[in-house]
Specification:
The complex is a heterotrimer of chains A (410), B (497) and C (128). Chain A has 410 residues and is of the alpha/beta class. Chain A folds into 3 domains: 183 residues, FAD/NAD(P)-binding domain; 132 residues, 3-Layer(bba) Sandwich (FAD/NAD(P)-binding domain); 90 residues, Immunoglobulin-like (Sandwich). Helix content of chain A is 21%, strand content 34%. With 497 residues, chain B is of the alpha+beta class. Chain B starts with a helix and ends in a 5-residue tail after the last strand. Chain B has 13 helices and 23 strands. Chain C is α+β, with helices and mostly antiparallel strands and 128 residues long. In chain C, the strands form 3 sheets. In chain C, strands 8-5-6-10-9 form a 5-stranded mixed sheet. Chain C has a 3-stranded antiparallel sheet with strand order 1-2-3, covered by helices on one side. The longest helix of chain C has 12 residues. Chain C starts with 10 loop residues before the first strand and ends in a 6-residue tail after the last strand. Classes of the chains: A alpha/beta (410), B alpha+beta (497), C alpha+beta (128). The interface between A and B is large, with 48 and 57 residues.
């Protein structure tokens, strides 16, 4: 039995190790870059691993632990190898420096990660000079390539990657003039607002956006204004004389290979619908990590990908034996979106909310009937929260049920 | 600007001290018109030099336009524009094959939503008939049958089967590449500063040295009127008309089969919805008359593009946009192309006011320019002229067998760098080595598509920078987006370079 | 750099940075000592108290790496907290050094940096 794992980031490595430990004969891990780790080698900051390894690690350390597990498990690793086509019969076409390979797998686990939304996706008007980077690209250039990409910087978007990049730029000697966030609340975790912005007196402008990029050759300035219902509030426009604009405006699952398999793409995750084992509607095809939907912590990515890796070598269930699950109201994203019935383990349901909520209650319902309920002191859009179903709650669910996840502020 | 006493003596000084670069024909401007003229003139036993102020070929308008081959029904019959559109369209059939330029004959539909627009397309229909271009008048049902996604409120349309889409930048590269192959020369980053006629030729002072030539072809696009004024020719002026565009993800490239236009108004052919030869969807342009060149996109302009495109073909375009840009069309003070000998300086030939359909007309303009040149210097065809040009291989279009062969020859062809457009390291190496070579990130993007996809270079741009550094032996801080001061990086953050 | 030190007898609100939960801590100081409310674990109480007396941060950066075919930088961290007002001084030290491959995760790159009692250590293994 061959399990092919596409993508050697944390999700792919965790899935590959779990598949091997669960008894897969052969596991092949295919990575497009020159090293394993995905984005972790560029995430040199700490804050990883508290759940998965029980200690505070930096990104490279988290990757290093996983990499050592991969190397010790007898997993075959291809580096500089990119899957360029995926076929319904679980054949992968891989381009490598030594030729084109056709991999006929029994199981494919896609751990392909996400891409960052570029300037063009949010259509910032103005000129098109050099000096505009997405935050992840900036991190790669600063931390892996070792480059100075800007001296005076403005940042759009307050997601965690952006906040951490703002701090990193400051530590490298750049002046970060400010961070604008279109929403009335920050996108990243509260602790990152503290330790990345407040620690260095970087102003955060909520309900603001960049309205224009100026500069002929290199960015010379950006215009920033307060926004209300999608419109500029007159008189609030400010000019920041910067040479660099960094964008941290969201991630999108890299779903192109998954689309080639004809799987339906959910508009709210941007990827295929998965069950609690992260298996798609196509038996033997799994999608894990940011390729399945955008996660918050690498710990959760590794944990969930391990579930998929282990399940990939076990018996598959009949696709007719499943219920569906969708997000409602202030719930933005739910994972899984399909629940397999009659398998051994009750599922863990992951979700994200649309706006910050205080004390609230999250309910899993079916036709108005509550199956499970859990209370939270607070929920924030930046965080992935979860409900683990108990066996008796799981047993109530029947094939064909349309389940809904809702949140009620208390 | 015209040669004053002071500058003339300065020029004389330079002419005495410097060895000028000599040529028979100097072409100013490596946009589509200059490139087409370059290719055609390199057929002959002439020393041809092409110069451009930019860091790469492709001019200004030629790399930011609608990428359309126009059917030829739009210009008024009897105008030079009408004739050259017609000639150019016919020539693109042959040229696209000789030069392996991507052209697709998709046909176009001009939609009418009200009585006055029906009158407009009726006029276009008559134009087309009078210059013998195949055009067909379609009613509402026929229109919707041919293109089911158009706004069902459409009343009628004009169908022109002989029109299509082209990759304009690839066309410029192929034309310049073919000219170079046949002995032509090129100088980029070369801005023309002064032109002076003397007994032994025309002297052209540029930012990179003095050039002495027998003939000058002014194909300077937006700046053609400035070149004319340098030769004392003041009857003609140009102003820029800005067109803003949005490029959409390839996933929605097949929204329309044809190029979809709206019935024209006085200031342009209106917003269009079209597929590009690369499979993206293109919407735009706006038509904004400006005093001076300004390639900014604006919130209002982009909103107009969206609104107008939705009126033609209702679709949530904003959800799929990956890039926006603005191009500037050169709008002359007369409503026709100027392709003629200068009125004031013998040896200068102007190709000015080349607005839309300049891309379509370019081969026709080039042939006309050759006629004009023949009145000044004899044209004798080279025995060994090679009309063919092939761009380096694009791997994603090749069967695996051939990819395999390329990888065996150079492992870099197996190393994929750009995920969105599936571009290998080997193709980027080729872009840097080919003639004319890519010298910056945008040059690579336009030649081989790396960074042109849905992530706009998020993954591959840092890798491409490494490849450029290695292949061109450049320090990081010298790598630019498009030449000049568009440096991407300020250096090594540990001072190790 | 901002100094969050608390004047005596006042209460301030801090965001705990120990873990992703990010509790809001109400820290007050009186002659009897420092009290912290709002923390959900003992680490939070410790952080809150420290933050108003001698704030500290863990620091991560990169050092120049030589001899590797693919890598130009080695990521590093301090293995203990650094006083907040010494962060940029430590960074200056980090920018001065370089290392050769092979390097192992955990290797000490700068011992007892600036005499602060913490080491700068490698956070990645790079063999060649």
């Amino acid at each position: 039995m061959l399990v092919a794992v596409v993508g050697g980031g944390p999700a792919g490595m965790a899935a590959a190790v779990a598949a091997k430990n669960a008894g897969a004969d052969n596991v092949l891990l295919i990575e497009r870059a020159e090293r394993l780790g995905g984005v972790l080698p560029q995430c040199i900051h700490s804050g990883f691993g508290l759940n998965y390894y029980g200690r505070d690690l930096t990104g490279p350390e988290f990757a290093e632990y996983l990499r050592q597990d991969v190397m010790q498990s007898g997993i075959e690793v291809w580096l500089n190898a990119m899957v360029i086509e995926a076929h319904h019969d679980k054949t992968l076409v891989v381009s490598k420096p030594d030729g084109i390979s056709f991999v006929r797998a029994d199981v494919i686990i896609f751990a392909v990660g996400a891409r960052e939304r570029p300037r063009g996706a949010i259509a910032i008007p103005g000129t098109r000079p050099a000096g505009i980077f997405t935050a992840g690209t900036a991190q790669y250039m600063i931390n892996v390539q070792g480059l100075n990409i800007g001296n005076d910087v403005f940042m759009l978007g307050s997601g965690d990657i952006g906040l951490i990049t703002a701090r990193r730029l400051t530590l490298e000697g750049a002046h970060v003039h400010g961070v604008a966030e279109l929403m009335p609340f920050p996108g990243g975790l509260a602790r990152n607002i503290q330790q990345c912005l407040k620690d260095y007196d970087i102003p955060l402008f909520l309900s603001h956006t960049v309205t224009e990029v100026l500069g002929k050759d290199r960015v010379e300035a950006v215009k920033v204004a307060q926004m209300e219902n999608g419109y500029v509030v007159p008189g609030t426009e400010k000019l920041f004389p910067v040479d660099t604009l960094i964008l941290s405006v969201g991630l999108l699952p890299e779903a192109e290979l998954i689309k080639q398999l004809g799987l339906t793409i959910l508009p709210y995750t941007g990827s295929a619908a998965v069950d609690q084992y992260f298996q798609t509607e196509l038996p033997g095809v799994f999608v894990v990590g940011n390729g399945a939907g955008i996660w918050d912590l690498v710990d959760n990515v590794a944990t969930s990908a391990s579930v998929a890796g282990e399940a990939s070598v076990k018996q598959f269930y009949e696709p007719s034996q499943e219920a569906t699950l969708e997000p409602c109201g202030d719930i933005r994203v739910v994972l899984p979106q399909r629940i397999a019935i009659g398998v051994n383990n009750p599922p863990r349901i992951w979700f994200r909310v649309k706006r910050p909520l205080g004390v609230c209650s999250v309910a899993l319902t079916c036709d108005g009937k509550t199956i499970a309920r859990k209370g939270y002191a607070s929920l924030r859009p930046a965080e992935m929260a979860e409900i683990s179903l108990k066996l008796e709650q799981y047993n109530v669910i029947e094939p064909g049920d349309n389940l809904q996840l809702t949140v009620t502020p208390l | 600007m015209a040669a004053s006493g002071g500058t003339r003596s300065e020029l004389d000084q330079i002419a005495k001290n410097d060895n000028p670069i000599n040529c028979d024909v100097l072409i100013i401007g490596a946009g589509i018109v200059g490139a087409a003229a370059f290719r055609e003139l390199c057929r002959y036993k002439l020393n041809v030099l092409l110069v451009d102020a930019n860091h790469d070929v492709g001019g200004d308008a030629s790399k930011a336009n609608s990428a359309i081959l126009h059917g030829g029904f739009d210009p008024n019959p009897g105008t030079l524009m009408s004739k050259l559109n017609h000639d150019g369209l016919a020539l693109w059939f042959a040229w696209s094959q000789e030069l392996s330029v991507d052209v697709e004959w998709t046909g176009s539909l001009v939609l009418a939503f009200n009585e006055s627009e029906i009158n407009e397309i009726t006029r276009l229909y008559e134009n087309g008939k009078s210059v013998k271009i195949p055009v067909k008048f379609l009613g509402r049902d026929e229109t919707l049958k041919r293109e089911p996604v158009v706004n069902p409120e459409v009343k009628a349309s004009l169908y022109a089967p002989v029109s299509g889409i082209i990759d304009p930048f690839q066309a410029v590269v192929a034309l310049v590449g073919n000219g170079l192959k046949n002995g032509g020369r090129i100088r980029l980053d070369t801005r023309v500063e002064e032109i002076s006629k003397r007994s032994d030729g025309i002297y052209v002072r540029t930012s990179s040295g003095l050039i002495r030539t027998k003939v000058v072809i002014n194909a300077a696009g937006l700046y053609a009127d400035q070149i004319m004024r340098m030769a004392g020719e003041n009857w003609f002026s140009i102003h820029p008309r800005r067109g803003q565009y949005m490029i959409l993800d390839k996933n929605v490239g097949n929204l329309v089969r044809h190029v979809i236009f709206r019935a024209p108004t006085s200031i342009g052919k209106g917003i269009l919805v079209s597929r590009t030869t690369h499979g993206n969807l293109l919407i735009g342009p706006t038509a904004e008359d400006l005093d001076k060149p300004d390639k900014r996109t604006t919130a209002e302009g982009l909103a107009t593009v969206l609104e107008s495109a939705k009126a033609l073909v209702p679709f949530p375009y904003e959800r799929f946009t990956i890039a926006q840009y603005a191009g500037l069309r050169a709008i002359g003070s007369i409503d026709d192309f100027v392709v003629a000998h200068s009125r004031t300086m013998e040896g200068l030939i102007n190709a000015a006011g080349i607005k839309s359909p300049g891309l379509t007309a370019a081969p026709g303009i080039a042939k006309e320019l050759c006629n004009l040149v023949s009145a000044l210097v004899p044209l004798e065809e080279k025995a060994n002229f090679d009309p063919y040009f092939e761009l380096p291989p694009i791997l994603r279009e090749l069967p695996y067998k051939y990819r395999e062969e390329l990888i065996k020859g150079n492992a870099a062809f197996g190393h994929m760098v750009c995920r969105c457009e599936l571009v290998s390291e080997g193709e980027i190496e080729n872009a840097l080595k080919m003639e004319p070579p890519a010298r910056d990130l945008d040059g690579i993007k336009r030649r081989v598509r790396a960074t042109a996809g849905r992530c706009q270079g998020g993954f591959c741009m840092p890798r491409i920078i490494d490849i450029m550094r290695k292949e061109l032996n450049l320090p990081y801080e010298n790598i630019t987006k498009f030449g000049n001061k568009s440096n991407v990086i300020y250096g090594d953050n540990r001072g190790n370079e | 750099m901002k100094d969050d030190r608390l004047p005596r007898g006042k209460t301030i609100d801090l965001t705990c940075i120990i873990c992703p939960v990010g509790c809001t801590l109400h820290v007050s100081s009186s002659p009897a000592g420092v009290s912290v409310l709002g923390n959900r674990c003992s680490k939070g109480a410790e952080y809150g108290a420290k933050e108003i007396t001698h704030p500290e941060r863990f620091l991560q950066s990169t050092v120049l790496l030589l001899g590797s075919a693919t890598e130009r930088r080695l990521p590093v961290k301090t293995d203990g907290p650094v006083p907040k007002d010494k962060l940029f001084d430590v960074l200056k030290e980090i920018k001065k050094v370089h290392v050769h491959v092979p390097v192992n995760m955990g290797d000490v790159i700068i011992k007892n940096v600036l005499g602060l009692g913490v080491n700068v250590v490698a956070t990645r293994t790079i063999e060649n």
